[in-house]
């Protein structure tokens, strides 16, 4: 089996990391993989001197119509049986058109749950033989928009649990970020953008008595950094919130946290939630998108209505005040990851979709 993968992200986190996991797993199963990525992309460097062939192709985004021709040329040269499109930026629509022009079936991974116009969605998703959604929440959005349900498959994202089970000592975390050891420490691991809900958390913190607030470390970067920093100052939370930026050493710190808070308004699934669960960290998250699939209320965390400041305050305070509940939910998270979000399950799920398309006689629902 020969599969050509297209990933146009420049950094190896989020969706690109999932692609790296997938290609590593497919290669171990004997699949012949070709990776198309932009010049200088981190995922290309990741597969340097590996069984995965890397072809660098420039892509300037959704309006780079010349990318269709460039990708079609690579498809003709590499002769894959399938094309798997992993990115939204430039790769989904343009990649689908290139694959169709080359008469090679295309599979699209969809990782976000933001809605699209119904007519656009119905046109767009006909470009693909299958659409692999990383959560049931995303699949529901597509079905609601009129996308043919026969094209949709759900294969959840995965996490390499072993990377998250060896945290640094808590004392080291406190020293690194200047936190008094007596304080409860919460983390947020998300881009600094509006839909991740940082402002909701800061409002919730401001409603807590200073002695009951957790210290919050915000891991991540993004265009809202200055505005969020100003909001922290306005609310008098300067001594309670630290912006740590994007950290490649996040696995060192995640498991040393007392809880993770993810107050996003929407989320396809939430890889940070899987990472926290693998690390045995209890979670407070929003009941939206695919988040309830990664955070089971009462099993590995607590769920609240997105944007509800008071509900978030109550949930955060509850975990801050109950160490036994934190341990219980942390244990539940480890069990959940082992049961439903392993790398093997994710790789086998994608591979089953490929086999379905390459053995149409075994699959009467193959879309055309």
- What is the CATH topology of the largest domain? Rossmann fold
Helix content: 25-40%
Largest sheet: 7 strands, parallel
Shape: elongated
Query: CATH homologous superfamily name of the largest domain?
Result: Glycogen Phosphorylase B
Number of helices in the DSSP assignment: 15
Poorly predicted runs are: 362-368
Strand percent estimate: 15-25%
CATH class of the largest domain: Alpha Beta
Give the SSE order as H and E letters. EHEHEHEHEHEHEHEHEHEHEHEHEHHH
First-last Cα distance:
20 Å
Total number of distinct structural domains: 2
Q: Look at the helices and sheets and give the structural class.
A: alpha/beta
The strand count comes to 13
Radius of gyration: 21 Å
Give the name of the CATH architecture of the largest domain: 3-Layer(aba) Sandwich
Tell me, rounded to a whole number, the average pLDDT. Answer: 94
Sheet with the most strands: spatial strand order: 3-2-1-4-5-6-7
Task: Produce a short descriptive summary.
It is built from 15 helices and 13 strands. The protein is of the alpha/beta class and 368 residues long.
